[in-house]
Design brief:
Elements (H helix, E strand, L loop, with lengths): L8 E7 L2 E6 L2 E5 L5 E3 L3 E3 L14 E10 L7 E17 L2 E16 L4 E11 L4 E11 L2 E9 L8
Antiparallel strand pairs: 1-2, 2-3, 3-4, 5-6, 6-7, 7-8, 8-9, 9-10, 10-11
Amino acid sequence: GRQKFDRVWVVTSVDSTGIKGTWNGQPLTLTLDLNVLDSPQFTNSDKRLLNFPLEVGKKWKSNNNFVDHTYKEMTGSETYSVEVTGYEKVKVQAGEFDAFKLKAKSSWNMKSGDVGTHVFTYWYAPKVRAVVKDSELIASQGWGLPEWTCELAEFQLQP
């Protein structure tokens, strides 16, 4: 079934140190590459899922320490490997966009001792300046989550 999750980001300022805004009315801090540093849900040291400029074939890695503000036991570290695998049209509820297709894999270790993997594919549309679709699969020791997909439902760009 489909569930609707509302996540409204509003950018309030951009300077050489990063991007400030709100996530459903609460403080949000992003890098200039639109990677989340601090939000109501997570604090990250270097979760580099985007690394501009994007071009097909570009690859990078990052090591991130994270704190999950909702589930404190889900605090730990992860290593990411990301590749831009294509440039294609993607259709979501908000419309059809030309987008970079990226694939990322991570291995994570929780402070609780739990380890696992996170595999996802996502599409970044330059016209919208956002990820417009994201498909993820998370697996851990003895548990996992069903694959899930999030899509952009609507957006408003300000001049």
